[in-house]
Design brief:
- The chain starts with a strand and ends with a helix.
- It is α/β, with parallel strands linked by helices and 763 residues long.
- The chain has 2 domains: 336 residues, FAD/NAD(P)-binding domain; 358 residues, Alpha-Beta Barrel (TIM Barrel).
- Strands 5, 6, 10, 11, 12, 13, 14 and 15 form an 8-stranded mixed beta sheet that branches. Strands 20-21-23-26-27-28-29-30 form an 8-stranded parallel beta barrel, surrounded by 7 helices. A 6-stranded mixed beta sheet has the order 8-2-1-9-17-16, with helices on both faces.
- It is globular and about 85 Å long.
- 40% of the residues lie in helices and 19% in strands.
């Protein structure tokens, strides 16, 4: 093949090397606008795991890198006068210029043609002359811009300003440092990359940057500002810049997050930053580009078909991994952008929140890397929670709301079972809820229990509008209290426009064939136009009646002995429909602004709070994101959470979605946890996190990092009612209470797990 690489950075050069190595017959030219020895930036970081992947692709390159890199295992976090160190991370740094020299030398050895100080022309001209055009021309890609409509890039200019400097101060660990100033917080990302130099990146939100007047500084003044700010770490060493092309405040950059819908067009393909970027806080931009190159070379040389067909396979195979890394980088980047959310945390928790901010690394992974650090963290957290000075997995620490103290942080998430008759909980519900209470969860939350017959989602939904239903619930509550340490909460709700539908397994959200009941909603908008029933817009009389139904349900919940009630204002049901701008189009006092849309749900909640015992807590569940343009956003949900907190909500159960069928969620592990994180740390209200939390490690990480106070798990509890007991045994935590009749099973499980661990060590 005759190939041209537009861009002589790591992406283009590494591709050229691997492609030429795979088949020396390939005719490959690299075109770079800069001189061979001209680059911006200082060091490049790779993990040990990443280096292993590069070694397999080309050992010669790795050997050259290893001869010129600086390796470290530790991360140091400086915050509020404390330094917290976490070890075992395994990273290496190398000068970006040295890396390029290695690539250039290796490419020359293999016979790659390199042309420096050459402007890149219209990529279409190259496409006519070459079999393949590699657009490796960086974040400001000419190649991508030429066919922007086709590649469809989403370019998101982020909120922070950063300056990329260097210093001869030889740091012995990857260093994060945080400084409070009269204008706001500044943070440092610094690491040594060879025997002489360290990268020194100073970052701050743009609002802080402007308050400090840095937009008016020349480059020397900005450098002097940073030297003074981090003088305690620099020990008299100066800072230097190699951004010769930048003047004045332009030396303070903004990060552009790039994500392209398409990576190729005909025989043109994007590589590295041209296709996608990853924030420097995760240190993976160059890694991502080089792994792109490995994958592209593999597809081109092992697949059949036309060039466009092979490029399509390349994107299909590579896109998911790139998205995973971008997602992790986005999480970490957002953490730094909103540093003000976290500076109230104790240093121990702040540091752990930083280390786990990407959601790729958790409590368990950190424990494998540095057991002493995690033991110290767990001891601190146990003391923080009022326990004796011993290491306890964070998920097994107690939590108190008003007079209710939970033995641990695990919540059985509310899950509709569609198994009631006439709204009465029966033997199925008794077995379902009591089994999970006996299974060790700290809190069991019931399925949405409806305030009237016409408030149900389906004919199989539970209710609490009459004495028979109350008695059925009391039977369950009494058993839970008599036979476990768990607490139990009743989730109270009204289906609104999502009511009068079939049981989930008969067609979720599909209207009943017969026996439909009339629906009400804030606005006459069906869930699915042409399919769902059209609800009637609620009148004031309707709202008054529904409010009284909620009050009566709350009183019955109290009489049944529930420890807590949860107000269901999420997932597109009645109260959620008032809150979301997608479903509330009212022009009266109950529509319009966020506060106005919340007015009616708050009226109902306050009326419930007034009859609920003051010593017992109340929760509210909200949808923090509608995943639809024009719908609820996390920022608006934070306002909603604050309103409910002011109205007496002790904890906010933070979910998302299910409001509109047009939603386009972004799924992944713990994908809704960032919403809980934002609400908890901005509103300063306890939260329950939910959403694809399925491992004990997830719970430990979320709790210890301050992203939530409780974690709700749904499907894991369907698969294993004793999920919490099993999680304790698997972590070697033996102090959790088992039902007395089951203690023999506890001891055997613990012995079996201990034996399995010993055998694994021997093997």
């Amino acid at each position: 093949m005759r190939i041209v690489c537009l861009g002589g950075g790591p992406a283009g050069l590494y591709f050229a090397i691997l492609m030429k190595k795979a088949n020396p017959a390939h005719d490959i030219t690299v075109i770079e606008r800069n001189a061979a020895d001209n680059t911006f930036g200082w060091g490049v970081v790779f993990s040990d795991q990443t280096m292993d992947g590069f070694r397999e692709a080309d050992p010669a390159v790795v050997e050259a890198i290893e001869a010129n890199f600086h390796h470290w295992d530790d991360i140091d976090i400086h915050f509020k006068g404390q330094m917290i160190r976490s070890g075992g991370h395994g990273f290496c740094g190398i000068a970006r210029l040295k890396l390029l020299e290695i690539f250039q030398q290796r490419a020359a050895e293999l016979g790659v043609h390199m042309m420096f100080e050459q402007d890149i022309k219209n990529p279409d001209e190259y496409a006519r002359d070459y079999d393949l055009v590699i657009g490796a021309d960086g974040v400001n890609s000419v190649t991508r811009s030429r066919h922007e409509a086709h590649f469809n890039p989403r370019i998101d200019t982020r909120q922070c300003r950063f300056i990329w400097l260097g210093t001869r101060k030889k740091l012995d660990a990857f260093t994060f440092a945080f400084k409070e100033t009269p204008w706001g917080w500044f943070n440092l990302h610094a690491y040594r990359f060879n025997d002489e130099m360290s990268t020194f990146i100073v970052e701050t939100p743009e609002s802080t940057w402007l308050k400090a007047g840095l937009d008016k500084f020349e480059v020397p003044e900005s450098i002097a500002f940073c030297e003074n700010l981090f003088a305690d770490l620099l020990d008299g060493h100066p800072l230097v810049s190699n951004a010769r092309h930048l003047r004045g405040s332009a030396v303070w950059l903004k990060f552009n997050r790039v994500l392209c819908e398409r990576w190729y067009k005909d025989n043109i393909v994007l590589l590295g930053d041209a296709a996608h970027t990853a924030h420097f806080s995760i240190g993976s931009g160059t890694k991502l580009a080089m792994e792109d190159a490995i994958a592209l070379v593999k597809v081109l040389n092992s697949s059949e078909g036309s060039v466009p067909e092979r490029l399509a396979r390349y994107q299909a195979e590579r896109e998911i991994e790139a998205l995973k890394l971008q997602s992790a980088a986005r999480n970490r980047m957002t953490w730094f952008e909103h540093i003000d959310r976290y500076v109230h945390l104790p240093p121990e928790q702040f540091a752990f929140a930083l280390l786990t901010g990407s959601q790729r690394v958790g409590h368990g992974n950190q424990k494998l890397r540095d057991p002493e650090y995690i033991e110290s963290l767990d001891r601190w957290w146990a003391r923080h929670c009022g326990l004796p000075d011993r290491a306890v997995p964070p998920m097994f620490t107690p939590f108190t709301l008003r007079s209710m103290t939970l033995p641990n942080r695990v919540v059985v998430s509310p899950m509709c079972t569609y198994s009631a008759q006439a709204g009465v909980p029966n033997d199925f519900h008794f077995q379902h809820y009591t089994a999970r209470a006996l299974g060790g969860a700290g809190l069991v939350v019931t399925e949405m229990t409806c305030v009237s017959a016409d408030a149900r989602i389906t004919p199989g939904c539970t209710g609490i509008w009459n004495e028979a239903q109350q008695a059925g619930w009391k039977r369950i509550v009494d058993f839970v209290h008599a036979n476990s340490q768990a607490k139990i909460a009743l989730q109270i709700g009204h289906a609104g426009r999502k009511g009068s539908t079939r049981l989930a397994w008969d067609g979720i959200d599909q209207p009943l064939d017969t026996g439909n009941w009339p629906l009400i909603a804030p606005s006459a908008l069906p869930l699915m136009p042409g399919v769902s029933q059209v609800p009637r817009e609620m009148t004031q009389a309707d709202m008054d009646a529904v409010k009284q139904d909620f009050v009566a349900a709350t009183q019955r919940a109290c009489d049944a002995g529930f420890d807590m009630v949860e107000f269901h204002a999420a997932h597109g049901y009645l109260m959620s429909s008032f809150i979301s701008p997608l479903t509330n189009q009212r022009r009266d006092a109950y529509g319009g602004s966020t506060e106005a849309r919340c007015r009616y749900p708050l009226e109902v909640f306050r009326a419930m709070r007034a009859v609920w015992p003051p010593e017992r807590p109340m929760s509210v569940r909200i949808s923090a994101h509608d995943w639809v343009p024009g719908g609820m956003t996390p920022d608006e949900a934070t306002v909603v959470a604050g309103l409910f907190h002011d109205a007496g909500a002790d904890i906010v159960h933070v979910s998302a979605g299910q409001v509109s069928k047009d939603e386009q969620p972004v799924y992944g592990r713990m994908f809704q946890v960032p919403f809980s994180d934002q609400i908890r740390n901005e509103v300063k209200v306890p939260t329950i996190a939910v959403g694809n939390i399925f491992e004990a490690d997830h719970v430990n990480t979320i709790i210890a990092s301050g992203r939530a106070d409780l974690c709700a798990l749904a499907r894991p509890h369907l698969a294993d009612p004793a999920w919490t007991l099993h999680a304790a045994a698997e972590q070697g935590y033996t102090d959790i209470a088992w039902p007395r009749a089951y203690v023999g099973g506890k001891l055997q499980l613990e012995r079996n797990l201990e034996r399995a661990g010993q055998l694994a060590l021997v093997a």
